[in-house]
Amino acid sequence: xxxxxxxxxxxxxxxxxxxxxxxxxxxxxxxxxxxxxxxxxxxxxxxxxxxxxxxxxxxxxxxxxxxxxxxxxxxxxxxxxxxxxxxxxxxxxxxxxxxxxxxxxxxxxxxxxxxxxxxxxxxxxxxxxxxxxxxxxxxxxxxxxxxxxxxxxxx
Length: 155
Fold this sequence. Notes:
The protein is an all-alpha fold. It is built from 9 helices and no strands. The longest helix has about 30 residues, at about 85-120. It is elongated, with a radius of gyration of 18 Å. The relative contact order is 0.16.
């Protein structure tokens, strides 16, 4: 979306869209599959359930911020079924947790678009070392390092 809409608008569209989609999946899972989700996932995620019940907004925000601990995205959306998370907390913790990652990806997409517009031929080295690309990659690397520290501290 960064290529199509630019850095800022692409981030806004992406974050709102994925947050609404995740909320819809959570609502469907909570309504139709609550018993099944509890039966399958409760034993595997017992330590997280206790952690999330302490402060569901904060811990789910951190969980989204660090990328869901490697859990596939569909399961990330169903995990809060185990601790009956409030829908508003789910939406806003997802929304704010998604912003840093999506901002970086949309910045890279916007930088790619700018590079293509101003260059006559594509050179990967020039592309990689253009400020529109290497700065977001450095931001992404920083985000990953921060995520590792957060993961070790909280999870």
